[in-house]
Amino acid sequence: MITALGGGVGAAKFLKGISLVLKEPLTVIVNTGDDIQILGLRISPDVDTIVYWLSGIVNREKGWGVREDTFHCLEQLERFGVETWFRLGDRDLAIHFYRTYLRDNGLTPSEITDKVSKAFGINNIKILPMTDDDVETWIETDKGEIHFQEYLVKKEMTPDVKGISVKGIDKAKPAPGVIQAIEEARGIIICPSNPIISIGPILGVKGIREALKRTAAGIIAISPLIGGAPLKGPADRLMRGLGLEVSSAQIARLYEDFLDKIIIDEKDAIEVDKIKSMGIETVVTDTVMSNDEKAEQLATRILRLFEEMT
Ligand code: FO1
Fold it and tell me: What's the whole-model pTM score?
């Protein structure tokens, strides 16, 4: 079994690629720190983005949401003067209604994710939220503390980042199957996701980091940086805001206590020696997943590395 940790568009693209080549079970442990309550609905963007990519209905241009979706419901809501900066499409709304309805009936996020995955025909990949407890990532900015989605979408990443807090993480327990997926995997992949707000919250859930340190599985991360910057999203702003260098070497350092290898892009080849000095092997390749074929190639490369490690 292969296990992957991730969240966001980079992870979802990679998982689409690996789903096309993998011949064994795959479990994905997904960040839920991006979750938010909007108009009474519970939104779990990282879970939904992976579901949409794997089922093939994603809006590939945006990287999230449903292809050819419309926004009639939001347009109607604008009449009432409610905030509609978080663009929930008409088709996308169905998943949020369903999740909220099931939560109100006592189902856990992992039970809901299982039902959603099956409804979208995702049977070969087990999607596990990192925890069944509610957590939310908030960003401390020069203009006060705001939810991560407000920072990313409403404020378009403009406020200066002073710090990050993942509310509820101290009490969050791993969802059923998470620790087992780490312990029993033959290979673990840290997806090309934001190390601070996508992978960081997963590592913050009690017992996950320790499980990664003790597992016999080889662990390979894919750096989300290309030429020292993310293709999309706030990884550089958040790293800088926390006083961290924006580099793949810094990402390797964040995972140093459990990581065996890191894949970095050709544009960052200069970082190889720095990473080597941490005892982490570096593989340099083209990591830009501009289409499914390129995501497949990256996945195939990683699966071969696991073969070499056993
Ligand atoms: N991202 C945006 O940039 N703008 C949006 O209005 C937006 C809406 C949205 C709705 C549902 C959903 O599942 C994701 C959505 N995203 C939107 C993406 C989301 O903010 C980010 O991709 C992730 O949270 C980052 O990991």
Answer: 0.98
